[in-house]
Amino acid sequence: MTPSDAPAPAALPEIAPALARTASHYDAVPYESNPFPLTHPARLAAIGRLFDLSSPPIRTARILEIGCAAGGNIIPLAAQLPDATCLGIDLSGVQIEQGQRRAAGMGLRNITLRRQSVTEIGSRDGPFDYIICHGVYSWVPATVREAILRVCAECLSDNGMGVVSYNVMPGWHVKLVVRDSLIAHAAHIQDPSQKAAQTRRFINLVKDSVSKQAPYGNALRTELEELAELRDDYVMHEFLEDENSPCTFTEFVQAAARVGLSYLGDTLLHSMIGESYGEEIASALQLLSDNRLLAHEQYLDILTGRTFRRSILIRTATMGPVQRALNPARLMDLHVAGQFTEAAEPEASGARTFRHRAGRALTTATPNVQVALERLAARYPGTVTPAELVHTAGLDEPAPRSAIVIGALGEMMNAGVLDFYIEPLRVGSAGAPRPTAIALARADVAQGASSTANLRHEPVSLD
Fold first, then answer.
1. How far apart are CA 72 and CA 452, in angstroms?
2. Would you give the DSSP letter of residue 209?
3. CB atoms near residue 449 (< 10 Å)
4. How far apart are CA 19 and CA 178, in angstroms?
5. Which helix (H) or strand (E) holds 49?
6. What radius of gyration, in Å, describes the C-alpha atoms of the chain?
């Protein structure tokens, strides 16, 4: 990536000590660096298409990841998209060096990993078609949060998309009680291994001791039981870092708007659908929000206690063509996948139940939809086009008949049991006589890695 002659952003000496402390913490306790499937450009571009937005082509995309750690997310993207240009930045020199060794061992020439603060990124580094900032925004000072949004505003290409994750209020209030408790117990301990051990001891002791008879005790116990199952590096950085500033969805959107960014949607598209949460919540949302998108999202957080968001941002100047109504017909431009198994024998009425891997059940008595679901399940984890499903179901023409399958796919999308991508995902068969692992996995095995990523951009443990 060749920088232009534009000047670099001004240095910010007032936050240098905070950045140095953050870097030292992550150097001492590196964060487990994994792929995040919902940040894949193929997924983001598909969401853009569902809103009638023409997103930049992913195969030649310019991708920036802010806070890339050891490259667990961006290195698999570079390996999967050899004609893309990838840049990852992070404050931790230890983690950047780990990522550089991994990328060099794979012979990747389309990725650069730099030890750098986002406050030093400017328009001369871009433009970028996709900007990813996962697990950073809530854990940095206000000046850095502003820099993250500034970079998205200044460096996104036309129709480019940025995804920023952050802790959300009011749901995070309960977790703040846990954070305050852990800080009171272990913040004074300097040695990382001792701090981790003392934190783990505190979690296990308190979760088994707190009273079950009061709302406070039940809430605290629930949070600590969840923490007890999580990794030390996650607990340390999520709850014991100097900075952790959750915000409301409204505050985030307003901060984005101040620099010329607008909220497109959530990477978990079905989380925006009120009906996904049941009739009572859907009815309350309609009354409270009066069908206003931003109000709808804010009230969703209040009613569900959501604690974490992954918001997709685009430049406000490109919002013009966005169509908010999710038309299932736009699925025809995408590639879809779903992991379903038939739950039981067909009922006497002919209805059949298919169960998704997440536990949701879909029952249908329509033979054409049943055939489409069979095809969808047989192709998993690879994708199939909706047009192919329509053809398989024998409903090519007329259009009202093919709409039966498209409508079913739309319902599955709204229920969160349909994966969708802007490009096809082709996979081999593990049952083949000589199955071949992807090049990324083979390279990670050769380097002695404990995990890799599959073609769905999911983490896979290596033993």
1. 8
2. T
3. 16
4. 24
5. helix 41-50
6. 23
- 380 pLDDT higher than 70: yes
CA-closest candidate to residue 318, choices 198, 167, 160, 135 = 160
User: 396-422 burial, b if ≥16 CB within 10 A, otherwise e?
Assistant: eeeeeebebbbebbbbbbbbbbbbbbb
Residues 452-462, mean pLDDT to the nearest whole number: 94
Residue from 261, 193, 204 nearest 232 by CA: 193
**H/E element, 314:** strand 308-315
What helix, strand, coil percent values describe the chain, rounded to 5? Answer: 45, 15, 35
How many C-alpha atoms does 129 have within 13 Å on its Cβ side?
Answer: 19
Q: What pLDDT, on a 0 to 100 scale, did the predictor assign at position 7?
A: 44
Give the span between the Cα atoms of 311 and 268, in whole angstroms.
9
Quick: pLDDT tens for 146-180: 999 999 999 999 999 999 999 999 999 999 999 99
Identity of residue 11: A
Instruction: For residue 102, give the H/E element and its range.
Output: helix 93-106
**pLDDT interval class at 362 (50, 70, 90):** confident
Q: Please give the full DSSP string across 146-177, using - where no structure is assigned.
A: HHHHHHHHHHEEEEEEEEEEEEBTTTTHHHHH
* pTM check: above 0.85: yes
